[in-house]
Amino acid sequence: MQPDALFQLSGPLAMTGWLALAATPLAPRLTQLVAGLVIPLILSLGYTALILANWSGAEGGFGSLSDVMLLFTNPAVALAGWLHYLAFDLFVGAWEVRTARHERIPHLLVLPCLVLTFLFGPIGLLAFLGLRLVHGRFASFPAGGAS
After folding, report:
1. pLDDT tens digit string along 101-117?
2. Which domain holds residue 123?
3. Has residue 29 been placed in a domain?
């Protein structure tokens, strides 16, 4: 299959996982199965196949920014990089939801973190870690505020 065709399939597949995470209160176990395991696994398998088939012939590498830029001029390797992002960000999003549920953080508070993780990966992770810190710090106070 051509890289463009795989790219066209990868977006909707990942979006299915993100939509499941957004709706996780409706079916938490199914969400974790789909968004936390099955879809990242499919994306990871695609990544692995692309790397195995194209890595040895790709120019560039990781020694300098110029080498990385050269590496991603190969469409199959660039697609592998894209699948890497999709798989890892979705996996992190599923971890955020799972952790929030375990720590009893309201899902509505997690949704902005999921959007940020979807769009900007590490920024969303930072937002979620900050939410955990704030929630853990202030969760023990009475409803009326600090006493």
Report:
1. 999 999 999 999 999 99
2. 3-138
3. yes
Number of compact structural domains in the chain: 1
Give the global pTM: 0.87
Separation CA 80–CA 92 (nearest Å): 18
Per the domain annotation, does 144 fall within a domain? no
In a domain, residue 146? The reply is no
Question: By the 8 A CB rule, do 3 and 79 touch?
Answer: yes
Under DSSP, is residue 87 helix (H, G, I), strand (E, B) or coil? helix
Q: In whole angstroms, what is the distance from residue 22 CA to residue 112 CA?
A: 10
32 close to 40: Cβ distance less than 8 angstroms: no
Residue 145 domain-assigned?
Answer: no
In a 10 Å sphere around its CB, with 0-12 CB exposed, 13-18 middle and 19+ buried, how is residue 57 labelled? exposed
Q: Are 146 and 57 in contact (CB under 8 A)?
A: no
| Residue ranges of the chain whose pLDDT lies below 50 | 141-147
